[in-house]
Design goal:
Blueprint: E1 4-8, H1 13-24, E2 28-33, E3 58-62, H2 68-78, E4 82-85, H3 92-97, H4 99-119, E5 127-133, H5 156-175, E6 178-184, E7 187-188, H6 197-209, E8 216-218, E9 224-225, E10 228-229, H7 230-242, E11 249-251, E12 257-258, H8 259-269, E13 272-277, E14 284-290, H9 292-297, E15 310-314, H10 332-337, H11 346-369
Parallel strand pairs: 1-2, 1-4, 2-3, 4-5, 5-6, 6-11, 7-10, 8-15
Antiparallel strand pairs: 9-12, 13-14, 14-15
Helix pairs in contact: 1-7, 2-4, 4-5, 6-8, 6-11, 8-11
Bound molecules: NADP nicotinamide-adenine-dinucleotide phosphate and ligand G4F.
Function: Catalyzes the conversion of GDP-D-mannose to GDP-4-dehydro-6-deoxy-D-mannose.
Cofactor: NADP(+)
Enzyme class: lyase
Length: about 375
Amino acid sequence: MAKVALITGVTGQDGAYLSEFLLSKGYEVHGIKRRASLFNTDRIDHLFEGHHCKHNNFYLHYGDMTDSMNLTRLIADICPDEIYNLAAQSHVAVSFETPEYTANADGIGTLRILDAVRFLKLIDKCRIYQASTSELYGKVQEIPQNEKTPFYPRSPYAVAKMYAYWITVNYREAYNVFACNGILFNHESPVRGETFVTRKITRAAAKISLNLQEKLYLGNLDAKRDWGHAKDYVKMMWMILQYKDPEDWVIATGQTTMVRDFVKLAFEYCGIALEFVGKGIDEKGVIAKLDFHKAKEHHLDLSHLKIGQELVCVDPQYFRPTEVDLLLGDPSKAEEKLGWNREFNLEDLVCDMMRSDLKLMNKDKYLQEGGYTIMRYYE
Ligand code: NAP
Ligand code: G4F
């Protein structure tokens, strides 16, 4: 009998990679998606063969983390062996704008899942993965951060996730639910949401190289993040639920990088060497060197760019009321007990994202040259 998994947040970055991974392991996968006024299944389109395909092992259900009745009914119907609770309003900056909704979906939403499993008497059958986050460390109390590092959340998102973390621990201790927190550090990919900083950068580097955009506006260039590849991280979600005991785990690379340096790596891929001049809100990323050979490798013509041209500027609208300056994870526990090792390092991640965004933006350029309107998607 195939194991049955239920994934909340199936249309998101991690939901898509995890679905692909679990299907490859022979699971029957059920995903909860929100109703949207446009299709929102781009990331899982290649997995879903439609309701009429008999060999389909992938099922989608409408649902929402703010609707207890819906979640309880779905869990009762699906009766999953494993639940991966990935759904969340996951944007830190947006959580300052929508704090109550973020608390409801990210915090109380987790309680709804845990309590549905208890109420339906599925505790002995069902294991639960909770998508916890390195944002819990916020104003970090030690460097690097491990499972024992005290939390100091710095945003409504992180505070909501802190409730979710502790309610997961509480249901484990109070009711013996096999419920685990994966404290995952930032993980990115070609299907990362376009408003997270890495994807914003790789999309802009591709568009600027193709003469589809003039400048990239960013916020805090000094922030440091421990960036890994989402493909590596979803495998760990599964490993966490296969471990003999329910525990909490830090999943990270153990390397931290400044936003500014990620920008340099992305542009370098296209043959554009940037140097940063000035300070604070007057800091600019300007072209120091153009490598036409490298550009040619990626079929890029950089003749529209000039040495000294400003490509990156700071816009204070992207600053956050309270910032997380530095995240650096210590994944020793996962390395020792779960055998955590990674396929992608930072350079591989940047290459994977740049390759994909250049392909995407080349398509846009082709459409534009053919006289079609292309979306600009500014935020
Ligand atoms: P993501 O791309 O933003 O995906 C979030 C998913 O949640 C989407 O499918 C979204 O649906 C869904 N969702 C949002 N609100 C919902 C609601 N009220 N009801 C039902 N579904 C809802 O996030 P991700 O990067 O894949 O991250 C997955 C999880 O891991 C999140 O919980 C995130 O907070 C956490 N996390 C992420 C990272 C990271 O670096 N990526 C690190 C640590 C923890 P739509 O597609 O309709 O918007
Ligand atoms: O890419 P970000 O928006 O990710 P952030 O805030 O670290 O959160 C992500 O990782 C968390 C894990 O640690 C997840 F829990 C969470 O769900 C999400 O996936 O911002 C990264 C850094 C920040 O310091 C931000 O201030 O980049 C800085 N930044 C600078 N300019 C920017 C920008 N961030 C965004 N989104 N946009 C900018 O223009």
